[in-house]
Amino acid sequence: MDATVYPIGRFERPDPITPAAVAGAIAELAALPAALRGVMAGVRDPDLAIRPGAWTARQVVHHLADSHMNAVMRVRVALCGPDADVVAFDRLVTAGLYGCLAELPDARGAPVEDALVVLAAVHRRWVQLLRGLDDARLMRTWVTPGYAGERSIARLTLVYAWHGRHHTAQIARMPGHPAG
What pLDDT, on a 0 to 100 scale, did the predictor assign at position 77? Predict the structure, then answer.
């Protein structure tokens, strides 16, 4: 596995998913905006690629804001009804949606600060929502039409905690970063 692509390794779901693991992931989601802001402080040029042929640091920060906004909405939809259609993250990736979003003019040119502010607000709301759910609601599952298997809010929480760490580590390891 290439450490520049997966500096913290690929996501590994614990089996079983415990309330303690979910609580830890929620704490990570709460800490992500400050951690990302801190690592971005060491980026001399946000338009440099995080590694050759990859997105720029600016695009990665905007991607985090985009994908985490989408994740919050998926959780909210899943909580609102058993028949709600929740689009799976990997379906969005396969369809090229996240790659497309990272190439749009705002992700390529809007200030990084815009995405950091959005991410902070989204995470405050998301963490408040998650902390207000009991264990049964955190384990609530949904089925995505056309996709095999169930997903749970707990699993999604773990995935997105990893996702934030993953991209923060990529930025920290980019060429010229003091943490790299």
Answer: 84
Give residue-wise pLDDT tens across range 47-66. 999 999 999 999 999 999 99
Residues of the domain holding 36: 19-172
Q: Encode burial over 76-102: b for 16+ CB neighbours within 10 A, e otherwise.
A: eebeeeeeeebbbbeebeeeebbeebb
> In this structure, is residue 152 part of a structural domain?
yes
The residue behind tokens 């996709």 is 147
CATH code of 103's domain = 1.20.120.450
- The residue whose two tokens read 């920290």 is 172
Tokens for 94, please give them.
Answer: 């396969």
**Residue 178 lies inside a defined structural domain of this protein:** no
Separation CA 15–CA 179 (nearest Å):
33
Flag whether pLDDT at 148 surpasses 80: no
The verdict on residue 12 lying in a domain is no
